[in-house]
Amino acid sequence: MEHGYTYEATLAASHKVNWRLEDVIGGERRLDFSKRFMPEALAQVDALDGLGADEKRVFNQIRGHNYLYLFGVVEEFILPFVLDHARPQLHGDDFRVRALLQVAGEEAKHIHLFKRFREEFTAGFGTDCTMIGPPGEIARQVLSHHPLGVALVILHIEWMTQRHYVESVRDDGELDAQFKSLLRHHWMEEAQHAKLDTLMIEALVAAGSDRDLEAGLADYGKIGALLDAGLVQQVEFDVDSFERACGRRLGAAERERVMAAQQRAMRWTFLGSGMSHPRFLETVERIKPAARRQIEAMAA
Ligand SMILES: [Fe+2]
Ligand SMILES: [Fe+2]
């Protein structure tokens, strides 16, 4: 195995970084609404010329809220998927069972963490943000696809999470400290998840036929299209939420410009940055070289 990932090593690394919810939120640790929550590389609000500085900050915070929510949504299907993958192998490799259950426990904790942050956001922001969903329904639709397709989407998401933190969040000194701490703690545990996902995908490919491989790759594309439709809808909701929060309506032409710019930003955040991640593409290439080229073309 070229990547060198093992269940034993990921489990040991997980134990080292494991944190408690109480270490990340509560007490003195509060969101500061005078600050931005998301790095500009993902929020991309600076190019929205018609917005004032305060309005750009508000839009950035709305994007922070949708990041919390949409991560909550994806964790809703990651958790049952990992449990279903672990269930038939409970009597096999002990490290594998423990590593998979460790991931499941961490994802349940992340769902809880994102909910707690959203509660605090809602209390402090003062305007309700409209969201796609409900999360359980999106999870149900995603999980109705081929397990290999779902596993590829999960691998994409977990490498993407790390990329967001390492490339955009870690060195951004302007972000709200509490929101940044959330992203850092999430990243610390996600770093092991992508390795386990790689091992899960290899197990699925080894156990499946050529037909399973084709179905899995095709379903990766279908789930991507499903999520993309959700993102486009969410952008519309975000603009509505922005108008309510700022107490003004955008003109038709400006609204269209904001929507187009934010669609690009959301697609990069949740699709492009995962599809083009080198580690993700390496795994795809290992299972089928031509699929890598297809995904690279899609990402572009
Ligand atoms: Fe997570
Ligand atoms: Fe994860």
Question: What key phrases describe this protein's structure?
Answer:
300 residues, mainly alpha, globular, binds fe (ii) ion
Itemize the secondary structure elements and their pairings.
Blueprint: H1 7-17, H2 40-43, H3 53-86, H4 94-125, H5 135-143, H6 147-169, H7 177-207, H8 210-246, H9 252-275, H10 278-287, H11 289-299
Bound molecules: fe (ii) ion (FE2) (2 copies).
One fe (ii) ion binds next to α7.
Kindly describe this structure.
With 300 residues, the chain is mainly α. Helices cover 75% and strands 0% of the residues. The protein has helices at 7-17, 40-43, 53-86, 94-125, 135-143, 147-169, 177-207, 210-246, 252-275, 278-287, 289-299. Helix 9 packs antiparallel against helix 11 (289-299). The radius of gyration is 19 Å and the shape is globular. It starts with 6 loop residues before the first helix and ends with a helix. The mean pLDDT is 96. The structure holds fe (ii) ion (FE2) (2 copies). One fe (ii) ion binds at residues 78, 107, 158, 190, 193.
